[in-house]
Amino acid sequence: MEWHLTDVQSLTLIDHEISDYPCSPAEYEIIRRVIYQTADFDYFSLIRFSEHSLSSGAAALAARSTIVVDVPMVQVGIVPNLQLSFANPVYCSTQTITRPQKSKTQAAWGIQTLAKRYPEAIFVIGQSQTALTGLVELIEEEEIKPALVIGTPAGFIGADVAKERLFDTQIPHITVDGRKGSAVVAVAIVDALVDLAWQVYGQTETGRV
Q1: How much is the pTM?
Q2: Within a domain: 131
Q3: Residue 93 within any structural domain of the chain
Q4: pLDDT (0 to 100) of residue 144
């Protein structure tokens, strides 16, 4: 993504406040970008990376895998950076045409519909805890095997449970512990991951300016 002087100055201030970090440089880059977008240093200890989450996600981005998101805010937030890099197709669950179902929200029903259509996609759930729960159900039933799941919905009831269930799977994932989270956090994670992946795979690409 394009950086301005104020962006660099803000990231430098974050680095000064976090003098030591027990994680890899790539993980730290994602964490600092989340802190920058939220001005919340709690995320330093809340963001959780599963084994191989970054490598799997970066490889899927480079392979131009489909990205499925839960709400338009996430879609609008990540598309500009993707258009300048890997140009992955992005589909939104709440904008997916589905048959009505009273037992599920539109986000949950849409995410499950898209998951069955793109079982190895990258899934980004930034706001809807019902969408994350529905996605985890399909993973537990071994109907899908995503390349990466980014799950950051906030919530007092159910959100933390869905995140813990995701942690118990073997699917590469990035989540936020506890009640905190938002679509803004999800966008920050994706944008940082795209930039990191571009450093590794982008040397042979010609689409970015």
Answers
A1: 0.91
A2: yes
A3: yes
A4: 98
